[in-house]
Amino acid sequence: MYDLYEPAYRSRVPFATFVPESAVRSRFTVTDVRIAGIDVERPDRARVRLEFMGLVPRIDRSFPQRIQETWIRVDGGWYKVYQPTTPPFPVRAYSSSPSSPRPSPP
């Protein structure tokens, strides 16, 4: 995943710093990924809309999700612009804290 990010991000954030945040991103399994649209802003910049299902193994439940990513072209290659981690679905859905409410079954 680290290699997908823009060179400017990778030059200021070493891989060892990236790994803990990456662990947060990998607490769920992504399935059924679909590109919902691409908006070309400039020849070297585009916004990509994605839809996917995120399975939270701890509660064995999937959640639909839509996200938007910005990609830029650098030296002929396309790279994802770094954005801080945000959970793709409600935090309480995968919290292990006993005080956190659990989602009701559908």
Set down the secondary structure blueprint:
Elements: H1 7-12, H2 15-25, E1 29-42, E2 45-56, E3 61-74, E4 77-80
Antiparallel strand pairs: 1-2, 2-3, 3-4
Task: Summarize the structure in words.
The protein has one domain: Roll (Nuclear Transport Factor 2, Chain: A), CATH 3.10.450. It has two helices and four strands; from the N terminus they run ααββββ. Mean pLDDT is 80; it is low at 93-106. It is of the alpha+beta class. Helix content is 16%, strand content 42%.
Protein traits:
single chain; 2 helices; Nuclear Transport Factor 2, Chain: A; 106 residues; 4-stranded antiparallel β-sheet; alpha+beta; disordered C terminus
Concise structural overview:
This protein has one domain (2-85): NTF2-like, domain 1 (Nuclear Transport Factor 2, Chain: A, Roll), CATH 3.10.450.100.
User: What is the highest CATH level, the class?
Assistant: Alpha Beta
Helical amount: 10-25%
Q: On the 0-100 scale, what is the average pLDDT?
A: 80
The tally of helices reads 2
